[in-house]
Prior knowledge:
By secondary structure, this protein is mainly alpha-helical. It has two domains: 10-174, Orthogonal Bundle (Cytochrome Bc1 Complex, Chain D, domain 2); 182-316, Cytochrome Bc1 Complex, Chain D, domain 2 (Orthogonal Bundle). The protein contains twelve helices and two strands, in the order αααααααααβαβαα. It has a two-stranded antiparallel sheet with strand order 1-2. The two termini are 29 Å apart. The relative contact order is 0.16.
Amino acid sequence: MLLLSNGIAPAEAQRAAQTQRAKIVMPLGLVEPVWPSDNPYTTAKMELGRALFFDKRLSADETVACASCHDPKFAFTDGQPFSTGVRNQKGGRSAPTVINRVYSVEQFWDGRAVTLEEQAKGPIQNPIEMATTHDAVVTKLRGVKGYAPLFRAAFGSEDVDIDRVAKAIATFERRVVSGNSAYDRYKAGNKTALSESARRGFMVFFDKAKCDQCHFGINFTDGSFNNLGVGMDKPEPDLGRELYTKRASERGAFKTPTLREIARTAPYMHDGSLTTLEDVVEYYNKGGNPNPNLDQRMKKLDLTEQDKKDLVEFLKSLNGEGWQHAQAPKSLPQ
Length: 334
């Protein structure tokens, strides 16, 4: 039987495409993402990815799943400054949210993965996170009979390899989105969607504080890497993107995160060092921590106490919906 390059028969692929058009409706404020040509969306692939995302068997001692650090209860973070991997080991950075990663070009705080597929492969082999190998995971999944029909539905055959595992997880992650926030409704014309304080905070965000220099667009991020001085006052600071690019000019630079669901994803910054939104606003208000690579846009803001309160209220208005459906399956394949 003739199969397409993605392993799906023509008729099945056509049905999948129709399902995609019928099912994928983005929340207000978002746009339809561009799906990778080598990993188009199908519901079957997304459901396989859901199972894999919540399956602790992907780790060496079967105690850690993707969802352990990216838990729906915490808006796909874990609510901790540093995430916990196998054998209760602590990582060195805070887990960023999965929400709206579909709009992100580079993944991880330092951008070392250029696709979600590549990102999905990383934690499996990280000695602190899942501490296993791609081959070991593939062998384990081949031994779980319940996964066979899921791989067949997603890819046209029961074959398991690490690329298929990564593609399925990435497909699930691309469906974890947030939109239709109070801000989106306000922007769409509902002038009562924001409180009076949040409306003032809107003006602080876009005018006085100029937060939109880095946090703009539908996902409230420029996707770039900047040194804000976070942690640079420590004796041995995290060098950030420099560790990946080997460029000294990027020392202490980390990815600009989305602000969507920001009120649900504490603690903040790459090291989880700021506990509340109030702490974040105060950090920016003081202009960050001085260091040779500090971004030139980091300057004292001279915000009033009312400005700070209003800005926090505006940030809270960026909580939305669209990701709450992405819960664990009722049961995992056996």
